[in-house]
Give the backbone structure.
Amino acid sequence: MVTLDKIYHAAYVLKSVARRTDLIEAPVLSNGFRMFLKTENLQLTGSFKLRGAYYKISQLSEEQRRAGVIACSAGNHAQGVALAATRMGIKSIVCMPDGAPISKVESTKSLGAEVRLVKGAYDDAAAYAAQLQQETGMTFVHPFNDDEVIAGQGTIGLEILDQLPDVDAVICPIGGGGLISGVAFAIKQLNPNVKVYGVQAENAAGMARSVEQGAPVTLESARTFADGIAVKHPGDLTCAMCQQYVDEIVTVSEDEIAAAILALLEKQKVIAEGAGAVSVAAAMFGKLPIQGKKVVCLISGGNIDVNILSRVITRGLITAGRNATLHIALEDKPGQLLGVSRIVSECGANVVSVFHGHSDANTAVTSCTLTIGLETRDFEQIEEIKRRLTAEGFQLLMGD
């Protein structure tokens, strides 16, 4: 059973291990409210998961320590377990889905764990880990559905209240629910007036559906690049705690998550992984009643693969109206490209790619198709360019 005493004990145990992460204001990301970022992406191992994993393992008996520990994870819990076990001289095996980012897999190995890659999603890795635990007798360190793991994560709630005593709301990512269960429990016990909101990726909203139905449900799939919260089946313990202590759960799209990652990176100089950015996405895109409030967005982790980051930045630029592609039908005669370039330049945008072709079956034989990639300021600038092109006789093709 999770208690406030257990969370305070966890805070004592973690004092020499886990970093008390900064709470920083983000005025450039605020719009009608004051946003503060709880930067767990700067935690040791790059994620809050160290807290729960370390506290859980610290409470094992000598016999359990000798047998070793086993865990399943998409990456962040894996690194927390690996670091905690290695520091305490305990053998660890971590089962990870084979689609986990390479950076997380390699980091887990470097921290001393034996990694077993399992085909499928997190839940498939969990099933294999459970089977392995039965065969080996090792202690299973669950990533979220465990009292001591939840207590460890709850130490973040204590820190938030200490760092910002007059906070109005806390926005927290949800995968399996361990983080928000601990944070919400701690906050509601100490200040019930503070709202606690949860956020999930819309393609992996298992907890939202579970709370609606009053019991854990299993999703057919959890397809999101926010791999840290791609959980098909939340815990029964965390589901019950979310029902009791969480005020509302909302979802965000993949494009909204990408835009939040880009905004954090560009405007706040903070690198967040997909799971870590969903709290900011919910605030940025008006998903919650936080106008005029002091709001803490929990950035749960920053372990994003650089290859994924590159794609996310591109997607975020498109979502924010910072990149655009236009397809234009031109008469195949001199000066047409110059006319388009002049309009783009006068509108203040920048051409980054050009493709000129004759293969479109929907255009006249004497015409051609121009595809241009643009760097733009926002959607308003894109529309201005389209209006100018149309006004000067250029024909925009379908999709523009």
